[in-house]
């Protein structure tokens, strides 16, 4: 492994640790509940986008159906909790495992598809999931599930009086997703994925197991997104099919990574840090009118950023030397 | 119904299928067309059937302008071209929805009386609603026209050639931007036609496009990218599947049938039924 690369990886780890420490300290200074809320969502989407990035960015399999895994995580946790009294912590793991298994099951037929056919298939499968949950009486159908409030408790992971535990969990999720990405980037898998993304035929001929590396990426990605979904369900304490499995989540997971820099370690974090506060602020400022001004502002931003910086915001920082050194 | 999906999909088949440009704002084009024909009816009492050519012409200009102002630059992106196209047109879709909410309010509107609305016609003992019938006829005509246009005229061939190799067509003196702007205009005009007819029997509201857009993508992909005939066949299949699903499953699940058939088809034929790409 070449020296520059090792140095860069060490530097990344130090920066991440520093950022995480700073983030962990912010609640000491930020007491405003609205701002805390925005911070929690930002961290959550950073984590989700980082997970999405594993399959779609590194491995190049663009999925616009990750809302399925997000919703499955949320539903598994809450169904286990409300129907069987299983604690959300176990539900979270179960949701992750269920999603990862489903992702791999879907991978069998899906990974034969290329390009638009694959993207449309991912949208369609999430939409099928949404419609099925809409009609599944036992799971609350369109009414959804209200999570019973039994007072503040770490055991049940619900808190009424403070948002801080949610904040720290979101931070932990974001760090976990980042660390998994960082670790995988330099593993056998990470190299396989990039090879699969750049040229699957060439990768195959050089002995890369294309199919299994896609499956691996899908499983890791789905697992982490499902954990995010479980967290979100506990955080908002009410879920229905639209609010956890709607198409907008698939886009909201993809957007930060695309805006920050798809297939990069820092892109999703950077994108989320800019995009989510902007989204929430425009909604906060203009959304009340009910006349769509927030949509106009938000849409214009997306158009401008994606036109101006096709490689993402991260490309602003990269020095020309990096392209040579990273290989 | 199937032919109507076909009609929405035919415009998309041109933009998405033949020029290989993702347009996530296709549903919003439809929405704009429906509002246009609503306002022409509300203010000037022009029946949607008569105003359809006007709407199509307006959408032609709109589509060409969108291409020249936005999509042209999205296509120029050197990295992640696919994602840039998706998010540029998706952003446009959000803006258009926002603008519609701002100017037209989120209220549901409909065209109460028109020449076609609510009437049925009996064909050999089967009662068919007239608007759908007209929609079906227009759809067949539109497909036939597009097929002829793509395969028999120089301009149609220029579109295909430009997608294949923009560099080479520039050498023989074809201006890529003019060809694609025209293609986008034509695609938008076709969806304008669809919108004008659908305005007669669907509620019109800012989000109306979203519900049709996904089915239109599925229709095009089902038929296979790069094939006009494929999109037509896709439209018919989608319509039939929807009708059959409606008999077996509760109405809220009717789209599940369409989606499942899409998945089934691409698992067997990864390039759609008649796709060449």
Automatic annotation (TrEMBL), chain A:
GO cellular component: a single term: plasma membrane
Q: Where are the transmembrane segments?
A: 54-75, 87-111, 117-133, 166-184, 215-239, 251-276, 296-317
Cellular localization per UniProt: Cell membrane
Check the record and name the Pfam families matching this protein: BPD_transp_2
Q: Which UniProt keywords apply?
A: Cell membrane, Membrane, Transmembrane, Transmembrane helix
Instruction: State any single GO MF term.
Output: branched-chain amino acid transmembrane transporter activity
The membrane topology term of the UniProt record is: Multi-pass membrane protein
Name of this chain's protein: Branched-chain amino acid transport system permease protein
TrEMBL record, chain B:
Instruction: Output one GO BP term.
Output: amino acid transport
Q: What is an example of a GO molecular function annotated in this UniProt entry? A: transmembrane transporter activity
Protein family per UniProt? Belongs to the binding-protein-dependent transport system permease family. LivHM subfamily.
Q: Which InterPro entries does this entry report, sorted A to Z?
A: ABC_transp_permease, BCAA_transport_permease
Q: Which Pfam families match?
A: BPD_transp_2 (PF02653)
What subcellular locations does the record give?
Cell membrane
Protein name (record): Amino acid/amide ABC transporter membrane protein 1, HAAT family
How does this protein sit in the membrane? Multi-pass membrane protein
Q: What is its main location?
A: membrane
Organism ancestry: Bacteria, Pseudomonadati, Pseudomonadota, Alphaproteobacteria, Hyphomicrobiales
Q: Name one GO cellular component term.
A: plasma membrane
List UniProt keywords, sorted A-Z: Amino-acid transport, Cell membrane, Membrane, Transmembrane, Transmembrane helix, Transport
Give the stretches traversing the membrane: 6-22, 52-71, 83-104, 133-150, 179-205, 211-244, 256-274
